[in-house]
Amino acid sequence: MHVIGGTASTALAERISRELDNAPFGIPFTKRFPDGELYLRVGGRLEGDDVVLVQSTRTDEDLIELLLLEDAVREAGARRTFVVVPYFGYARQDRRFFPGEPLSARALCRHVELDADAVITVDLHSPQTLSHFTKPAFEASGISALARLLKERPVDVLVSPDKGGVDRARRMAQLLDRPWFGFEKRRIDSDHVELSLGAGTIPPLEGKHAVLVDDVITTGGTMVEAARLLKRRGARAVTAACTHGLFLRDAFERIKAVTDEILSTDTLDNPAEKGSVAPDVAQILKREFPP
Q1: Helical (H) or strand (E) element with 285
Q2: 102 part of a folded domain
Q3: Which residues are catalytic?
Q4: Is residue 271 part of a domain?
Q5: How many C-beta neighbours within 10 Å does residue 79 have?
Q6: Is 117 exposed, middle or buried (0-12, 13-18, 19+ CB in 10 A)?
Q7: Predicted confidence (pLDDT) at residue 123 exceeds the cutoff of 70
Q8: Highest-confidence range of 60-74, 149-163, 198-212, 216-230, by mean pLDDT?
Q9: DSSP state of 75
Q10: Is residue 69 a part of any domain in this protein?
Q11: Residue 58: which CATH number?
Q12: Domain residue limits at 239
């Protein structure tokens, strides 16, 4: 089995190769033509071998690179191609709100799986996105990677910043054997939210270390308000933890100003990257696709 890392996920791809018993690892040669189009070439002998492609699709350019990589690997004679998309772009556009809109999540699933034998993602915005794949598709959880980090820290309570993340906080609480609760969120605009106490029994927070757990941090508005509310209720320390660290604009700095630590996994390159989903992705590959 060979592992090839796209430019958006090179470091994670190398970690996955190590988890796969030091499988051969490589990165493609890439360059841009004068008109901006991408040229790439994969090296090494791939004929008859299984290939794991690792590429997050945060941007449209990342997506085009992934599609070209899939075609290049097929042309090189790979026996099977397993596509790992740690951060699956457009996954949050999984519903239509107005006539004429595309179901973007479904459209991307169709294209990504064309030259793939299976697809592995990490913490999709909505689990139903997997149903849009017609080929085997799996979702690894970033919770395990974050739990491995939090086991090294004096955590007292897990907190979901909104109703949509309640299951995530509950599962993390079970792994760490700690209590949990969740906030209710009312969005004012793309950068501002209003929070109130919601799901779960609220444990005492005075002098406690609370950890906010979410799947993705984008603009940071929800995390900032949640951290402030926890501090107002007496929390001694607040950690913000997420699987996907987008941290758009000044989100990282804003969250850093109101928390004691920010933790993220390596599905995306970001300043809070401290945990890796490589063991969790490799576990799926080993279990589902033995040599």
Answers
A1: helix 278-288
A2: yes
A3: 185
A4: no
A5: 12
A6: middle
A7: yes
A8: 60-74
A9: H
A10: yes
A11: 3.40.50.2020
A12: 144-266
